[in-house]
Amino acid sequence: MSQLNIQAVINDDGSVSISWSPIPKTVKYDVRMYSDKIWVFSEKNFTATSYRTAKNLEAGQVYYIAVTSVAANNSSLAS
Predict the structure, then answer these.
(1) CA distance linking residue 64 with residue 40, whole number of Å
(2) What is the DSSP letter of 57?
(3) Tens digit of pLDDT for each residue in 65-79?
(4) 45-64 residue pLDDT tens
(5) Mean pLDDT of all residues belonging to the chain
(6) Which site in 4, 11, 26, 50 is 20 to 30 Å from 70, CA atoms measured?
(7) What pTM value is reported for the model?
(8) Cα–Cα distance, 14 to 52 (Å, whole number)
């Protein structure tokens, strides 16, 4: 299974820029972020290999990012 190699950068405005390497045969990506078992956002059917979150995320809070690549038959290729 391929690796996404996710990178995240905290921006001055409190947002996070997320990027990952493209996975062959991927038709879309599902991007999710959560904190303390609460979903911060979930973006499905995303076709780019980068995403920028909303501004002003809470400083000092731990956030988890999940990116899943999805094939044409809706099976996961990498996560």
Answers:
(1) 9
(2) P
(3) 889 889 888 877 766
(4) 889 999 998 888 888 888 88
(5) 86
(6) 11
(7) 0.78
(8) 11
